[in-house]
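User: These chains co-purify. Model them together.
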Amino acid sequence: MHFTSEQRLDEGVLEREFTLGEIPGFLWTPASASASAPAPLILLGHPTLGLGKMYPRLVARARHAAADGFATATIELPGSGDRPRLAVVDQARTDLRRALQAGEPVGDEIIDALILPLVDQAVPEWQSALDALLSLPEVGGPVGYSGGVISIGIRLAVVEPRIAAAGLFAGSFVPRAMFEEARQVTIPLHVLLQWDDEGNDRQAALDLFDAFGSEEKCLNANMGGHTGVPQSAGDAAAQFFTRHLK
Amino acid sequence: MHFTSEQRLDEGVLEREFTLGEIPGFLWTPASASASAPAPLILLGHPTLGLGKMYPRLVARARHAAADGFATATIELPGSGDRPRLAVVDQARTDLRRALQAGEPVGDEIIDALILPLVDQAVPEWQSALDALLSLPEVGGPVGYSGGVISIGIRLAVVEPRIAAAGLFAGSFVPRAMFEEARQVTIPLHVLLQWDDEGNDRQAALDLFDAFGSEEKCLNANMGGHTGVPQSAGDAAAQFFTRHLK
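Assistant: Joint model of the two components:
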């Protein structure tokens, strides 16, 4: 991990850009974080729109988390931003758009091609980022994962024992294979669902919540459309991480 | 309303028993409540087990609410505790038990007979209690309704304009007719659902949440069985009332 720039944001939050091999990323640490008092880390997931486009929302989440004493970090997803495209995912996205425009049902093969290659490539990258981030003296465990493509969160929750709690956003397509993986998740989960998100299959989201193997899981469903998560739901997610990571 | 006894609980909360005609009830007010600073009121709903049996849980809710600055009050339900039985409801309860023991589906006519007479009689009583409670100088509006038989909460939310927000517990049978009333509810709602409550029809609870006409509604679903609502869900409900009543 190489830091390529750093700046201090208003509230004393230190923002550092880094590269991890070819992968760009951000790390935000609260002013309180130090080698003697490392800040617990939340990995900030995000959709496949690229870090540049997502930056305003990511930095807002980072500021809130820093106010609660958390370090946060994120990396660019495979095929997004300036990273090489993933041909199979691009093709699936084209097929998806065509199906939606034609009013046809979205077939399993489209969802699989859209999500599974992304999960397969992204998850080991987030694990490498975790190795590098946890080697910093001012960043510590336990680690949370928050938001973004829900299938990446599911896979990470299954394969990465350093992740102790996950806040997931039921807002993207989920391949059938991920339901089986969901049964293997045992860490505490806080799942956000936008009830009136027309682009989202609500029943699939409810089935997925039901499938999670975790003894402690909370579904928090609200109105406001895909991007209209209310402030109170953000607060509830923040309280979830404070309960489990502090 | 006649006060029949009063005692001060440890935290300075004043507990008063009262009768409203033949109906017994409780009022709890925080030490801070006064004529110059009346406490906003939350009506505490409860199941049909009788106030005596429910007292420990009710007083725990009252103490928490008082710590947040709320007055709380509750009255005995028709047919419960020492009040005259409701023959039609008792018969429906017998029919319900028989159906459940036989593993038969619970018919609409049983649910209607179990719930609708209770709602019809209870709701005007809660409104009379509200008249009396709001006439006290140390109790003020806006008013919330919390928990208990969900159909009573729905009807109150529709017919009683003084109720500004409701926290409902999706844990009891709901007659089909109440789904129509749910569409007429427009106040902010916070709905608790115990996801693994075997005695509850989860799909009916989700359909009911969908039916509510409120622009602001939140579903908070957790594990732990019918009586195992986690502390975090109680905290979230308390925050909901603080957001809307203060």
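Chain A has one domain: 2-84+119-245.
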